[in-house]
């Protein structure tokens, strides 16, 4: 009996070693997207890199399709139009990217074709309005205190929604892991910094890059991008107060001359106003504390 058990265990171990060895021989490409955040009509370049680089690869490109029936494998992947034979180039340009979308790639060569593994999924984010799928964040700002409750609300042409997140480590998860999905709303007290969006079977919503701040001062800024020519107002909020009124604002770490005491108003936004903004409370109880950018 002991001999039989040892033989079975030995065979099982050998099979695992052989399987692992085979998997290690198959390269996994790395997919990058540029830019990762888009404005309507932008072109986006997907690049599929195989290591070590060698000749003869053809590259295959896939778009993510939400699978609402799965709680773990969130997507199926569909070959992009004209992609059945692959491309000789390791890059693929998407023209007129409008909405948030996810992509994968793999490479193949030889006859019969020997394929690499699939890359990880990479997303191209859009903060713009999509009437068919829309994310609303409450409270309506991009920065939130770590102790705050957060509601993420999905609206559009669907009766079934889920809220998704990619955290700062690139891990993709749904609301069911860090909140409670009730109808089309995800409520959570355990949000972390990352990019959030809504999904239905056929649509991705606008995305919101949310920062969860453990300090006592946050920048109050709109969730959605500002259209050129429109105005935008930034504020500074203390954890224990609605707004601070004795603050400084910074763009790209440079102090902005600002006559208003508690707000920064940009009356007609231009491309030159793009940048990283933060605020600092001059007389907050904790001293000169600064928000996240």
* Overall residue-averaged pLDDT value: 86
Percent range for helical residues? under 10%
Low-confidence stretches: 1-22
Number of helical elements: 1
Distance between the termini: 66 Å
Major sheet characteristics? 6 strands, mixed
Order of helices and strands: HEEEEEEEEEEEEEEEEEEEEEEEE
Structural class label: mainly beta
Q: What is the general shape?
A: globular
Number of strands: 24
Radius of gyration: 24 Å
Report the portion of residues in β strands.
35-45%
Provide the descriptors you would attach to this structure in a database record.
293 residues; mainly beta; six-stranded mixed beta sheet; five-stranded mixed beta sheet; 1 helix; 8% helix; Ig-like_fold; disulfide bond; signal; Ig-like_dom_sf; transmembrane signaling receptor activity
Structure report:
With 293 residues, the chain is mostly beta strands. Residues 1-22 have low confidence and may be disordered. The strands form six sheets. Strands 2, 4, 5, 7, 8 and 9 form a six-stranded mixed beta sheet that branches. The protein has a five-stranded mixed beta sheet with strand order 11-18-17-13-14, with no helix packed on it. A four-stranded antiparallel beta sheet has the order 10-12-16-15, with no helix packed on it. The longest helix has 24 residues, at 2-25. The radius of gyration is 24 Å and the shape is globular. It has one helix at 2-25, and strands at 30-34, 37-38, 42-49, 58-66, 75-79, 91-97, 101-109, 114-115, 122-126, 133-138, 143-145, 150-156, 162-167, 172-174, 180-182, 185-188, 194-199, 208-213, 217-220, 232-238, 247-251, 254-255, 263-266, 277-281. A hairpin with a 4-residue loop joins strand 7 (101-109) and strand 8 (114-115).
